[in-house]
Amino acid sequence: MKRPPSRDILLAKEGSMAKTLIVLCLAFLFILNMSAVARADDALKKLGRGLCNMVTFPLELPWQVSKVNNTDGPTAAVTYGALKGAGMVFVRAVVGVYEVVTFPFPVPKDFRPILTDPEFMFEDRSW
Fold this sequence. Notes:
single chain; 127 residues; mainly alpha
């Protein structure tokens, strides 16, 4: 004759199932919360902007010199363009690191870009 399971074993199984259910519910809520961000595709764009800025920041110096040369001439390019480019090298690198570190968070509001002119390197250039 088979003995019915003891009450202690049944309580242990119920407690284990309750813990598993709680963990699954928390995981589901976490995934559901993250899917709202992923659906908007803004966090990923922010990450992409940051990585792009971290890779392309050294090109800011010659690019600014070229832009100033095209608009104001070679003398302005050598002076003002070089200074503007050196400043933008620093700015683009720092903004890139900031956006990579903070990409999961909607800061600034709604994942707006910090650099807007241009948002990505060479964005305003026609190839």
